[in-house]
């Protein structure tokens, strides 16, 4: 499944729904597209819950954070192999634990002082692992934000899996909303599309200058990140060697780093 939102290529090697992701235009691929739970749908919708439980596998292996259990799409799931057009929802980015998010989560778990007692926004939360890591490390307030409402449901289930009380989840585009004050904003693997990268860069600058918010970015060296002007405002905090299963699923990626944004 390799995930290099490298440009338009979520370089996913294997079957079904992931091939569809490869053909899609990055994560700007109409997240509401075929989703029946648009907008403010309940994160606990029993129908979606049953679908997720049936079509994902609980796993804690193969990532940088074996202490976090997640419901993910694995080779033992039907839709790993199934024809992509049979998948009834928007592309399941929440069913992948991306290398950028893995590095961020590892860093927060190993350095709880970075989040303890702080308010944390996980922007583009996906499966919610980084928000979960922040919670495990003692963050006082957490918001997981993802524009895909199915991600909201997946995050709720993943909180339960880790015996955590679900934290607030926002499925609106936070980039369009008035800035709230956060001590820390974390972004895992969000720089895979040039336009999104530009919007994020501007939003993060506003966040930093308005509220002095600390910003940590996890990225495995995607071209849209390495080639973006944000590079001049980053300091590398730590770099991790990716575990073999993550490497196999992510063509050509061997490491993932955490960057501190200092505009
Ligand atoms: C590559 S995934 C990363 C997920 C997670 N952070 C990780 O590292 O595993 C990117 C996620 O960002 C979400 N996303 C895309 N644009 C967004 C936006 N403007 N605001 C919030 N989430 C967004 C997608 O729905 C997707 O779940």
UniProtKB/TrEMBL annotation:
It is found in: Cytoplasm; Mitochondrion matrix. InterPro entries: Methyltransf_16, Ribosomal_L11_MeTrfase_PrmA, SAM-dependent_MTases_sf. It catalyses: L-lysyl-[protein] + 3 S-adenosyl-L-methionine = N(6),N(6),N(6)-trimethyl-L-lysyl-[protein] + 3 S-adenosyl-L-homocysteine + 3 H(+). Its main location: cytoplasm. GO terms for cellular component: mitochondrial matrix. GO terms for molecular function: protein-lysine N-methyltransferase activity. It holds the Pfam family Methyltransf_16. Transmembrane segments: none annotated. GO terms for biological process: methylation; negative regulation of fatty acid beta-oxidation using acyl-CoA dehydrogenase. SUPFAM superfamilies: S-adenosyl-L-methionine-dependent methyltransferases. Keywords: Cytoplasm, Methyltransferase, Mitochondrion, S-adenosyl-L-methionine, Transferase, Transit peptide. It comes from the Eukaryota. Belongs to the methyltransferase superfamily. ETFBKMT family. Interacts with HSPD1; this protein may possibly be a methylation substrate. PANTHER family: ELECTRON TRANSFER FLAVOPROTEIN BETA SUBUNIT LYSINE METHYLTRANSFERASE. This is Electron transfer flavoprotein beta subunit lysine methyltransferase. It comes from Pipistrellus kuhlii (Kuhl's pipistrelle). The lineage of its organism: Eukaryota, Metazoa, Chordata, Craniata, Vertebrata.
């Amino acid at each position: 499944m390799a995930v290099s939102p490298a440009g338009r290529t979520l370089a996913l090697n294997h079957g079904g729904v992931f091939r569809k992701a490869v053909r899609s235009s990055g994560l700007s691929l109409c997240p509401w597209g075929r989703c029946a739970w648009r907008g403010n749908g309940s994160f606990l919708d029993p129908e979606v819950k049953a679908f997720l439980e049936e079509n994902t596998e609980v796993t804690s292996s193969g990532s940088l954070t074996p202490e976090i259990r997640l419901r993910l799409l694995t080779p033992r799931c039907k839709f790993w192999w199934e024809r992509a057009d049979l998948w009834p929802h928007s592309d399941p980015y929440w069913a992948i634990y991306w290398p950028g998010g893995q590095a961020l989560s590892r860093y927060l778990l190993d350095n709880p002082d970075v989040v303890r007692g702080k308010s944390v926004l996980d922007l583009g939360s996906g499966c919610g692992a980084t928000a979960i890591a922040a919670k495990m490390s003692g963050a006082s307030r957490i918001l997981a934000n993802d524009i895909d409402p199915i991600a909201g449901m997946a995050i709720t289930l993943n909180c339960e899996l880790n015996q955590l009380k679900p934290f607030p989840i926002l499925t609106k585009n936070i980039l369009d909303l008035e800035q709230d004050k956060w001590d820390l904003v974390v972004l895992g693997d969000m720089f895979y599309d040039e336009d999104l990268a530009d919007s994020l860069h501007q939003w993060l600058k506003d966040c930093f200058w308005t509220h002095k918010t600390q910003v940590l970015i996890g990225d495995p060296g995607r071209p849209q990140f390495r080639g973006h002007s944000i590079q001049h405002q980053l300091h590398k905090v730590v770099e991790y060697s990716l575990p073999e299963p993550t490497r196999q699923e992510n063509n050509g990626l061997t490491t993932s780093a955490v960057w501190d944004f200092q505009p």
